[in-house]
Design brief:
This protein has about 120 residues and is α+β, with helices and mostly antiparallel strands. Helices cover about 30% and strands about 20% of the residues. The protein has one domain (about 10-35, about 45-115).
Amino acid sequence: MTTVTLDFTPELAEQLSVRVSRSFLDARPERFEHLQLLQVPFGDEFKEGTMFWCATASDALLLMAYERACDFNALLLWDLAEAERTPESECSHRDAYVVMSARKWDCFMKENSAESA
């Protein structure tokens, strides 16, 4: 294994996602698949968490690493509904990668509204 160190500010990390939402994972678990080799059920810590949709796998991996470095548990998911909307001619399935973070949605919104003020 090789370790790579990257320095991210919240503003840089924000550029890695294309859409952000309050978690609805508990309401629609069938919509998402784990992209990690974990057969762990989605924990309660994600019920009030934040979901980040990313355009590429590399963006999602970087954002997941950032969330974990900020001491939030994070999972890499595949959004089946988003993947179905992607035309077959596009093999990249843009925006189907989701980082599910245990970062509470209310805290995320408060942090982002304070930064923009």
